[in-house]
């Protein structure tokens, strides 16, 4: 059974063809990083326009790479939310038009659920069976959610961020220090050159639901640390390098960043990243103990972070921890197609009146 997935929730236009819920025939992603980088974040109106330009060629390329035609598809899965409503509308509307033209089912997929299924897809591909109950920690630029999964497609929300998402905190700290956007990859690149214990950050103490997350205070602590030191000249030097860099040159290398980054700033980056990782794992471990979890899934864009991927190994956890491969950690359409398969099996099809929902919840 072959499903086409379409993803356009934020700033990446993606399409993928997946067979039987695990065999990725193609996965195409058109990034808008160069469009939004100069503004230090995603501009919703520009994102929508870029999706309009990219959606047709991206879907066409995904079909061509997979050797498929529209008549070969059993269904089309498209992201319904959460995300930027203008961006969501582009992918969802195009999916509706294809389904209407070919008379095939439309399946609406929650973007967060897609991130969880990026791990399930690769587990199935390797012949690994996930044990339930499992925990799913979805960590990205827009989301930091912790779910209990008693079975596939059955979720209970245990905790979420009360302010900034973890990936958002990475981006804001990087922007503050002159590293540009997106900030997560830069911090991950430079953190190994610093001392993660050099700057002591206090983890958030949550009132009410102790499994909720908060990164706003950590971000503010970094700001205060910077304000207390004369760092404007080094920040300006990094900003100038980014402005002078040609559009096709790609991001600066580690050597280029290191030439403009004193050791104290490297220590700050390492300490900040370590604090975020400890915040994430502290809540996940507390939830795992309460839920008697047999597995932990960590997915989303921040799951690419090398420090986060290494942390569970050093902690010697009593259950397996699953990460998606880097290509399936960031926004992609293979995860959307994978999440559509169990819905297809249950005949959970969407009508053409389905709407994009910017604040769609999973549980």
Structural class: alpha/beta
The level of helicity is: 40-55%
The oligomerization state is single chain
Measured distance between first and last alpha carbons:
28 Å
CATH class categorisation of the largest domain: Alpha Beta
Query: Mean pLDDT, as a whole number?
Result: 94
CATH topology of the largest domain: Nucleotidyltransferase, domain 5
Could you say what the CATH architecture of the largest domain is? 2-Layer Sandwich
Largest sheet: 5 strands, mixed
Low-confidence stretches are none
CATH homologous superfamily label of the largest domain: ATPase, nucleotide binding domain
Question: Layout of helices and strands, plus pairs?
Answer:
Elements (H helix, E strand, L loop, with lengths): L1 E6 L4 E8 L3 E9 L1 H5 L6 H23 L8 E7 L3 H18 L3 E5 H15 L8 E6 L4 E8 L2 E7 L5 H11 L7 H7 L25 H12 L4 H13 L9 H6 L3 H29 L3 E5 L6 H10 L5 E2 L3 H4 L4 H12 L18
Please provide a written account of the structure.
- The model has no long low-confidence stretch (mean pLDDT 94).
- The chain has 363 residues and is an alpha/beta fold.
- 45% of the residues lie in helices and 17% in strands.
- Helix 2 (44-66) packs parallel to helix 3 (85-102).
- The strands form two sheets. A five-stranded mixed beta sheet has the order 3-2-1-4-5, sandwiched between helices. It has a five-stranded mixed beta sheet with strand order 8-7-6-9-10, with helices on both faces.
- The protein has helices spanning 33-37, 44-66, 85-102, 111-125, 166-176, 184-190, 216-227, 232-244, 254-259, 263-291, 306-315, 326-329, 334-345, and strands at 2-7, 12-19, 23-31, 75-81, 106-110, 134-139, 144-151, 154-160, 295-299, 321-322.
- The protein is built from 13 helices and ten strands.
- It folds into two domains: 2-124 and 328-345, Nucleotidyltransferase, domain 5; 132-319, ATPase, nucleotide binding domain (Nucleotidyltransferase, domain 5), CATH 3.30.420.40.
- The chain is globular.
- Strand 2 (12-19) and strand 3 (23-31) form a beta hairpin.
């Amino acid at each position: 059974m072959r499903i086409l997935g379409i993803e356009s929730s934020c700033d990446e236009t993606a399409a993928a063809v997946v067979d039987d819920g695990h065999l990725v025939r193609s996965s195409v992603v058109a990034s808008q990083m160069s469009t939004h980088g100069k503004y230090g974040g995603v501009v919703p109106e520009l994102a929508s326009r870029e999706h309009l330009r990219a959606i047709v060629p991206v879907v066409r390329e995904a079909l061509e790479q997979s050797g498929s035609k529209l008549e070969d598809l059993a269904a089309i899965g498209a992201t319904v939310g959460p995300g930027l409503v203008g961006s969501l509308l582009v992918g969802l509307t195009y999916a509706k038009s294809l389904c209407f033209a070919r008379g095939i089912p439309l399946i609406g997929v929650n973007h967060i659920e897609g991130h969880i299924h990026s791990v399930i897809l690769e587990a199935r591909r390797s012949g690994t069976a996930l044990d339930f109950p499992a925990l799913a920690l979805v960590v990205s630029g827009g989301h930091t959610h912790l779910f209990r999964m008693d079975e596939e497609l059955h979720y209970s929300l245990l905790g979420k961020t009360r302010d900034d998402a973890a990936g958002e905190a990475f981006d804001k700290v990087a922007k503050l220090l002159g590293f540009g956007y997106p900030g997560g990859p830069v911090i991950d690149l430079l953190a190994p050159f610093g001392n993660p214990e050099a700057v002591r950050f206090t983890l958030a103490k949550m009132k009410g639901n102790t499994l909720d997350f908060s990164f706003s205070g950590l971000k503010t602590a970094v700001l205060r640390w910077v304000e207390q030191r004369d760092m404007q000249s080094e920040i300006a030097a990094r900003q100038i390098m980014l402005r002078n860099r040609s559009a096709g040159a790609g991001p600066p290398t580690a050597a280029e960043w290191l030439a403009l980054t004193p050791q104290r700033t490297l220590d700050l980056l390492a300490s900040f990243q370590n604090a975020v990782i400890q915040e994430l794992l502290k809540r996940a471990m507390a939830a795992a103990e309460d839920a008697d979890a047999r597995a932990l899934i960590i997915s989303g864009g921040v799951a690419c972070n090398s420090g986060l991927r290494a942390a569970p190994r050093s902690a010697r956890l009593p259950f397996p921890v699953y990460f998606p491969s880097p290509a399936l950690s960031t926004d992609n359409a293979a995860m959307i197609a994978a999440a559509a398969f169990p819905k297809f099996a249950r005949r959970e099809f969407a009508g053409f009146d389905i709407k994009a929902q910017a604040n769609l919840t999973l549980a």
